[in-house]
Amino acid sequence: MLSKEARERYEKLKSTINHYRTQRHVYDREEISIEAEDALKHELSEIERTHPELIAPDSPSQRVGGKPLPQFLKVRHKIPQWSFNDAFTPEEIREFDLRTKRFLKERFGPVVPSYVCELKIDGLKIVFEYERGILKTAATRGDGLTGEDVTQNIRTIESVPLSLERPVDIIVEGEVWMSTLSLEALNKRRAKEGEPPFANPRNAAAGSIRQLDPAVAASRKLDVFVYDVAQTSESFPSTQWEELQYLQELGFKVNPHRALAKNVEEAITFWEIWKKKGRHQEYWIDGVVLKVNEKRYEDALGYTGKAPRFTVAFKFPAEQVTTVVEGIELQVGRTGVLTPVAHLRPVGVAGTVVSRATLHNEDEIDRLDVRIGDTVILQKAGDVIPDIVRVLPEMRTGKEKKFVWPARVAECGGDGRIERIPGEAAWRCVNRNSFAILRRKFYQFCGKHALDIEGLGKKSVDLLLERGLVTHFNDIWSLTQGDLLALPGFGEVSAQKLLASIQKSSHTELARLLAGLSVTHVGEETALLLSQQFRSLEDVADASEEKLTNILGIGEVVAKGITEWFAEKQNRALISNLKEILEIHNPAYRQAHSSRALPLSGQTFVLTGTLSSMTREEAKEKLRALGGEISSSVSKKTTAVIVGAEPGGAKYDRAQALGVRLLSEEEFLRILK
């Protein structure tokens, strides 16, 4: 039996999806991303799969698209236009393959169908009709039965043939798209004219085709790929692969990136390949379409009420999805700052399952108006960090709860009191010496961005702190083999390795030490800036707020945080103790003040993806040793972007749009040599 809450959510999903679909398909308004809308539809489909008695004629799963706009003439499609069923994982594709085989077995006996794999272009679907080889009409998909006549605008696209190689009567289907570079140029013109920018190439293509003035459409550099024959007066090709070749022979532009898979596993391999490089094309791709290759099998499989049984859209991992906030807790950081973290209903986004996302601070919670129980849109910021970008208030039932900041947090220790930092949006523990804060400070100090003590990970740090073997950073160098052998999980070999790693870390660079001390507002990049300006840790500690502010990249808030941290007695004592143990050298200062110019001085680099020859940290160190600077984002001042395996799409696309040089790993290694 379906619970009252589940039924209520199902009805909310129906009404919400119908709203967004109307905005997208009828009015070209993208209020949420297609990925987020897909996530809502997928959740609704899962409910309908387990409770088919709920399926109603008005369910979003039972319709193809929206109604046409009244400004255009209506075109009744001679061949109904279907939407595709979606799959999101290899497991769902294998299930599609098994269903196909079971269906075909009843008629043909045991068979293994082959599949044609085609890129799913993210644009606007158009149906083209030709009479005796001459373009007659071009129409949008509309609601699947009736579309909008956009023939005059389609005629302006040079890749659309106005006449074919043969005088054939034919109806074909294709996708109109706009390149990312054309979109950037278009948005620059719109900005100058005071018009709002298009959010993405898909919106721009749809908006351009729906212009009443063909001259406007002609100015927007649209393109098209044709991928299907709906009807022809000639002999129909016997396979989908031959159908694509047939389209090319007639003069249609067909996407060159396709493959013939002998079985479903080869199809999944094609998807895996394009999942990694799909973002690097001039057009948007949101997945791979799998079609049964053999036409006789397609004919036997036929259609369901809304989609063909012989094809499926295998979507790439979503960059935006929807999920539910199940709770909000405060996490104590290494400087005592409290970060609100949302606990989410687990959901896959950009290839990983996410169950937590930071809400940053109190102001961000207020800005989003996020509540416990809300349905939210989640995305991977920079392809890495999960981030809540929007709440869907129309999904609320009235049971959602606002988050109330407590007066006390147990992890802060003592009486647990918290306070808002003056002039900032953040809260922090009044007592900044609690065990939770101390533990996170040790994590940072021993971590790879700081002293990089191999073998001293979070579990080992927790054991040392819980047993009272360390209470200050300098205690690490007092550990003995006997201390370590008394801890669970340590043997003679692992203890010796850890002690050797600790000894090795006593020879460290100033930038690494600064990054590990948990100085207020000082992370890896700020630590490097400081090391380039000061000879020693004492020089940094004695620097005035004014002197710090004069350093490019350090503002007033950061400068104040640094000076206040070094002014505290306990931190001065910490520095004194570490100075007696550590041998601190500072190559960054010597390089920055060397009279000899370094090869990469004045050049800024951005790294994206995974390098096979070294870690990203090693690559940064090599660039800095040659005078290069590292940035986390791409701008017009970026010299080059170094691209490894599985690069972040945002950095790659930004570099292409700005004309910034892209370096492969091989080119990067040649520069280092």
Helix-strand layout with pairing:
Elements: H1 4-27, H2 34-50, E1 74-76, E2 86-87, H3 90-108, E3 115-121, E4 124-131, E5 134-140, E6 146-148, H4 151-154, E7 170-177, H5 180-192, H6 201-209, H7 214-218, E8 223-232, H8 240-250, E9 258-261, H9 264-277, E10 285-292, H10 295-301, E11 311-315, E12 320-332, E13 337-349, E14 352-358, H11 362-368, E15 371-372, E16 375-381, E17 385-391, E18 401-402, E19 418-420, E20 427-429, H12 435-446, H13 458-466, H14 481-485, H15 492-505, E21 507-509, H16 510-516, H17 524-533, H18 537-542, H19 545-549, H20 556-567, H21 569-581, E22 583-585, H22 587-592, E23 604-608, H23 616-625, E24 629-630, E25 640-643, H24 649-658, E26 661-663, H25 665-672
Parallel strand pairs: 2-11, 21-22, 23-24, 23-25, 25-26
Antiparallel strand pairs: 1-6, 3-9, 3-10, 4-5, 4-7, 7-8, 10-11, 12-13, 12-16, 13-14, 13-20, 15-18, 16-17, 19-20
Helix pairs in contact: 1-2, 16-17
Explain what this protein looks like in three dimensions.
The structure is a single chain. The chain is α+β, with helices and mostly antiparallel strands. The chain has 5 domains: 4-61, Helix Hairpins (Orthogonal Bundle); 74-315, DNA ligase/mRNA capping enzyme (D-amino Acid Aminotransferase, Chain A, domain 1), CATH 3.30.470; 322-427, OB fold (Dihydrolipoamide Acetyltransferase, E2P), CATH 2.40.50; 435-592, 5' to 3' exonuclease, C-terminal subdomain (DNA polymerase, domain 1); 604-672, BRCT domain (Rossmann fold). The chain has 25 helices and 26 strands. The strands form 7 sheets. Strands 12, 13, 14, 16, 17, 19 and 20 form a 7-stranded antiparallel beta sheet that branches. Helix 1 packs across helix 2 and helix 16 packs across helix 17. The protein starts with a helix and ends with a helix.
